[in-house]
């Protein structure tokens, strides 16, 4: 909880749950005095609150790769998270996630990740494969030691596709199948890593 303590010549903004922002004193040029005392006090409190709240994670935009995604295909959200962290791979410093709501009302919470591509461009991503056709919605949020951002919401459509879904154990527990009931045969080449001797494909 935010605490504002009146000092002789200013205020203290203190929140024990913010390890990187434990104490900040906003000093005034002069103590509150004169006929405008109430106005100046209110203006100071508003300014202090703005400074304290500015430390929270800041999501400026969320962009999706498509408005329509096939069933079991990839929806990718690119999140513009402007706050900088010492280690963006540490969820204790920054935890990005999205909650997806299916047409049936079922919900999925999917964690985001920080990545750097071959051109050394960094970005925050959230990837999801919908398992129901129809209209989906999502809310993106970020949490760090200062608190949680208000969620940014969006929506997309999921259309029918030829994708079979994820691998799972069949209902009789005797073999593997895909989400739509298609049998799964786990057959493929075994190619040892970095094998380069002549004659080996």
Features:
201 residues, mainly beta, Immunoglobulin-like, 2 domains, 6-stranded mixed sheet, 4-stranded antiparallel sheet, 1 helix, 40% strand, globular
Detailed description of the structure:
- The chain has 201 residues and is mainly β.
- It folds into two domains: 3-53, no CATH class; 59-178, Immunoglobulin-like (Sandwich), CATH 2.60.40.
- 8% of the residues lie in helices and 40% in strands.
- The chain contains one helix and 15 strands.
- Strands 5, 7, 8, 11, 12 and 13 form a six-stranded mixed β-sheet that branches. Strands 4-6-10-9 form a four-stranded antiparallel β-sheet, with no helix packed on it.
- It is globular and about 50 Å long.
- It starts with a strand and ends in a 23-residue tail after the last strand.
- The model is unreliable at 1-32 and 38-54 (pLDDT under 50).
Average pLDDT: 77
How many beta-strand segments? 15
CATH class of the largest domain: Mainly Beta
Superfamily at the CATH H level of the largest domain? Immunoglobulins
Task: Please give the CATH architecture of the largest domain.
Answer: Sandwich
List the uncertain runs.
1-32, 38-54
- Tell me the strand percentage band: 35-45%
Given the structure, what is the number of helices?
Answer: 1
Please state the structural category: mainly beta
The radius of gyration over CA amounts to 26 Å
Q: What is the CATH T-level topology of the largest domain? A: Immunoglobulin-like
Let me know the largest β-sheet. 6 strands, mixed
Measured between the Cα atoms of the first and last residue, the distance is 64 Å
The shape is globular
- Please trace the helix and strand order, writing H or E for each element: EEEHEEEEEEEEEEEE
């Amino acid at each position: 909880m935010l605490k504002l303590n009146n000092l002789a010549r200013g205020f203290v903004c203190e929140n024990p749950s913010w390890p990187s922002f434990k104490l900040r004193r906003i000093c005034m040029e002069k103590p509150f005095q004169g006929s405008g005392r109430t106005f100046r006090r209110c203006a100071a409190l508003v300014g202090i609150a703005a400074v304290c709240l500015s430390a929270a994670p800041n999501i400026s935009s969320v962009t999706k790769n498509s408005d329509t995604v096939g069933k079991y295909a990839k929806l990718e959200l690119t999140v513009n998270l402007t706050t900088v962290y010492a280690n963006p791979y540490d969820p204790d410093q920054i935890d990005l996630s999205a909650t997806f709501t299916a047409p049936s009302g079922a919900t999925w919470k999917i964690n985001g990740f920080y990545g750097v591509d071959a051109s050394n461009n960094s970005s925050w991503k959230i990837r999801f494969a919908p398992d129901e056709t129809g209209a989906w919605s999502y809310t993106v949020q970020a949490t760090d030691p200062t608190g949680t951002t208000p969620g940014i919401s969006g929506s997309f459509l999921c259309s029918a596709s030829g994708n079979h879904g994820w691998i799972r154990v069949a209902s009789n527990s005797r073999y593997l199948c895909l989400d739509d009931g298609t049998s799964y045969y786990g057959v493929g080449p075994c190619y040892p890593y970095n094998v380069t001797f002549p004659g080996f494909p």
